[in-house]
């Protein structure tokens, strides 16, 4: 908070203590001052906080990469399987966390989860 805002809040508190303004007037003016601080700092409103694309996009991209790797015609060794399962788990986890924590990118998160599950089943089929 800046000093100007603190001074205004202190003056409001003094006015309330002296009985010049009521509790409702104090709370109303305090809310106005704090709202002006939020608008100056460009803090988004609570309704705008519905998430980012930092979880669903990596989930979907990793799911696509692992699915494409499933169609690789070469022979897979142990390290390739471990790497593929690492990306599957990462894609699945990012998708699940995205779905449960935010609204944005729900379709991309579902796509990442679906692709990672399908790729996991295909790779398990290679092993068996």
Q: How widely separated are the two ends? A: 62 Å
What is the global morphology? rod-shaped
Question: What is the element string, with H for helices and E for strands?
Answer: HHHHH
Radius of gyration: 26 Å
Strand content: under 5%
> Helicity range of the residues?
over 70%
Low-confidence stretches: none
Structural class of the helices, strands and pairings?
Answer: mainly alpha
The tally of domains stands at 2
Largest sheet: none
Instruction: Give the number of helices.
Output: 5
Describe the structure.
- The chain is an all-alpha fold and 128 residues long.
- It has two domains: 3-43; 56-127, no CATH class.
- The chain has helices at residues 3-17, 23-40, 56-70, 78-101, 106-127.
- Helix 1 runs antiparallel to helix 2 (23-40) and helix 3 (56-70) runs parallel beside helix 5.
- The longest helix is centred in the C-terminal third of the chain and has 24 residues, at 78-101.
- The radius of gyration is 26 Å and the shape is rod-shaped.
């Amino acid at each position: 908070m800046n000093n100007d805002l603190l001074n205004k809040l202190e003056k409001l508190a003094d006015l309330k203590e002296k009985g010049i303004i009521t509790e409702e007037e104090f709370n109303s003016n305090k809310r106005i001052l704090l709202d002006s601080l939020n608008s100056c700092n460009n803090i988004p409103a609570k309704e705008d906080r519905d998430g980012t694309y930092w979880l669903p996009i990596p989930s979907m991209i990793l799911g696509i990469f692992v699915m494409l790797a499933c169609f690789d015609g070469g022979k897979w060794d142990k390290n390739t399987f471990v790497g593929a399962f690492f990306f599957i788990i990462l894609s699945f986890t990012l998708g699940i966390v995205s779905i449960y924590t935010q609204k944005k990118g729900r379709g991309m998160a579902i796509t990442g989860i679906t692709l990672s599950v399908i790729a996991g089943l295909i790779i398990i089929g290679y092993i068996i």
